[in-house]
Design a protein that fits this description.
There is one protein chain. This protein is an alpha/beta fold. It contains twelve helices and six strands. Strands 1, 2, 3, 4, 5 and 6 form a six-stranded parallel sheet that branches. The longest helix is centred in the last third of the chain and has 20 residues.
Length: 284
């Protein structure tokens, strides 16, 4: 069987995850890399690292229950992949595309060259509604709708995982939850802090779709009301703890239910949110 490695970049979830599904066709492991380019970048805040690490911890436990080990390594992507390759000789690298700052683009070009030199087949899937390599915006909306309305990818019942692995530790997070960086992630100190992980994200989304979204349009633009009236899943989308496709489909179902119940305020608020899901990708 083929040896497959799932590279988790910004898709830290188990549901609707095409690379994880493809990994079930061989003997596999998953990998999250804590890259120095990210840790040293000006866009990183310790709370973002803490959020992503907590998502990985939850995902690691979920995948382990179905036989797939999740490795955590620290270092630049090419050097980490080389080390894993020397130990396990994988022939398929599976990942989502990433839409990020310039260092991620340069990193992906380097990884592509590395794969070609070693005969590793790197397969990427779209992460959300961003369409790569378009010369024109013409037709983008229909492509977005096609992706978002497609059936979500089912999670495999089990994987055949690599054996004898040292999984590796998650980043030290003391600095991320200290008093000088604000309240702890998801703690009672800040009730609106984004609780990390797929499970928490789905709960926050369902709370919004079932009623809190009623105030979305009038709350959106005010710092006094946006913290409670908005979805609170931005971090989950940014790190892929939630699939944008699943969020879109749950939102459309909630709109239909609100209309059937003649809840015009909720339907209106959720239609506004639905438009913002499109803008999320169109802006990128």
């Amino acid at each position: 069987m083929t040896q497959r490695l799932v590279w988790l970049k910004r898709a830290l979830r188990s549901l609707d995850h095409a690379p994880l599904a493809a990994a079930a066709e061989g003997v596999a492991a998953a990998l999250w890399i804590v890259e120095p380019e990210w840790r040293n970048s000006p866009e990183l805040h310790p709370r973002q690292l803490a959020f992503a690490s907590a998502c990985v911890a939850e995902l690691r436990a979920t995948l382990a229950q179905r036989g797939l080990p999740l490795l955590v390594r620290h270092g630049s992507a090419v050097s980490v992949l080389q080390d894993v390759f020397e130990r396990h000789r994988f022939d398929h690298l599976l990942s989502h595309e990433e839409t990020g700052p310039g260092w991620t683009y340069a990193r992906d070009r380097a990884v592509g060259a590395w794969c070609r030199e070693r005969g590793v087949q790197w397969q990427e899937w779209p992460h959300h509604g961003v369409v790569r390599r378009l010369r024109s915006r013409t037709g983008w909306a229909s492509r977005w709708a096609g992706r978002m309305n497609a059936q979500p990818v089912a999670m495999p019942a089990a994987w055949s995982g690599w054996q004898g692995l040292e999984l590796g530790g998650l980043p030290e997070l003391e600095a991320a939850t200290s008093s000088n960086t604000g309240s702890q992630i998801g703690s009672q100190t800040d009730p609106w802090a984004a609780a990390p992980g797929q499970t928490a994200g789905l709960g926050i989304l369902d709370d919004f779709l079932s009623g809190r979204g009623r105030a979305y349009r009038r709350s959106l633009s005010s710092p006094l009301t946006a913290e409670s009236g908005c979805s609170r899943i931005s971090a989950h989308l940014a790190f892929g703890a939630l699939s944008l496709r699943m969020v879109h489909q749950r939102t459309e179902a909630a709109i239909a239910q609100a209309q059937a119940q003649a809840d015009r305020a909720l339907a209106s608020g959720l239609r506004g949110f639905s438009g913002r899901l499109r803008w999320h990708c169109h802006f990128m």
